[in-house]
Amino acid sequence: MPRSDRSPLLLAGLLATAGVAHFASPRQFDATIPRALPGRPRTWTYASGAAEIALAAGLALPRTRRTAALATAAFFVGVFPANVQMAVDWRHRPAPQKAAALGRLPLQLPLVLWARGVARTAARRA
């Protein structure tokens, strides 16, 4: 399988794993939900986990891949405030946790670009 054929499946696997983690261990995700959002953090945790699983399914299917990839890019942009919140909230934690929270911030850009690349490849194949 060529690398470009694996790319959407790898991205789908990443999203599916993260989505399942939202349900398996929601407390850690609750802490990242910006306080400005209405409702309970657990609701947002479950909603974002379900969205990640749905995006993963869309990426796995060639027929829905382009749309799912564009939605994935938008999702990564949309969850960036949660990563900022986590970095702010964890600024006084031990160094490894602080580093993990800060390390998530620049990771968003390559994820957005990866999703856009999957969308472009899917569009060329359609």
From TrEMBL:
It comes from the Bacteria. GO terms for cellular component: membrane. The chain crosses the membrane at residues 43-61. Keywords: Membrane, Signal, Transmembrane, Transmembrane helix. One of its GO terms (biological process) is methylamine metabolic process. InterPro entries: DoxX. Pfam families: DoxX_2. Residues 1-23 form the signal peptide. It is a multi-pass membrane protein. It is found in: Membrane. This is Membrane protein. It comes from Streptomyces spiralis.
